[in-house]
Design brief:
This protein is of the alpha+beta class. About 40% of the residues lie in helices and about 20% in strands. The chain contains 5 helices and 8 strands, in the order E-H-E-H-E-E-E-E-H-H-H-E-E. Strands 3-4-5-6 form a 4-stranded antiparallel β-sheet, covered by helices on one side. The protein has a two-stranded parallel sheet with strand order 1-2. The longest helix is centred in the N-terminal third of the chain and has 17 residues. The two termini are about 20 Å apart.
């Protein structure tokens, strides 16, 4: 999905950081409404030509159709739970996602909240993705997918 940032900040470090975090375009205030519309149209045109079955976050590429993940040169097939867990982290990239939230949204409410099933699945995912795995543990909070 194309990302266009509208901001009152127009300093170069802010713009560069936005692009580094995945923004496709950056527009500073004040701006012309016509320019905004033109930039949105360009992003939608570019977005339509890209493969919608692949999601990229930082160095991770997640193939939604084939249920495969790629980090650097490591390509691996994922089980259903591994895929759903990784997709949830990709959907909330950069955010800390608690174990409880992962249990309820990936496994459903039928699992015991005291279970270590999330930790086990994350460990398997990290092993499959290799040493460059972008999954980070946030102590006493949960997990986060690194943006870089």
């Amino acid at each position: 999905m194309p990302v266009l940032i509208l901001s009152a900040r127009n300093d170069l470090p802010t713009k560069l950081r936005s692009f580094q975090l995945g923004a496709n375009d950056y527009l500073s205030k004040p701006f012309s409404f016509d320019e905004l519309v033109a930039r949105v149209r360009v992003q939608l045109r570019h977005g339509a030509s890209e493969d919608a079955s692949t999601v990229r976050v930082g160095g991770l590429e997640l193939d939604l159709a084939r249920r495969r993940a790629r980090v650097e040169d490591t390509v691996t097939d994922l089980s259903d739970r591994e895929f759903r867990l990784l997709y949830h982290l990709v959907s909330h990239a950069g955010e800390v996602v608690s174990r409880e939230r992962l249990l309820s949204e990936v496994w459903g409410y039928s699992f015991d909240p005291g279970s270590n099933v999330v930790d086990v699945c994350v460990r398997r995912l990290r092993k499959k993705l290799g040493p460059a795995s972008p999954i980070q543990t946030v102590r006493h909070a949960g997990y986060r997918l690194a943006l870089t």
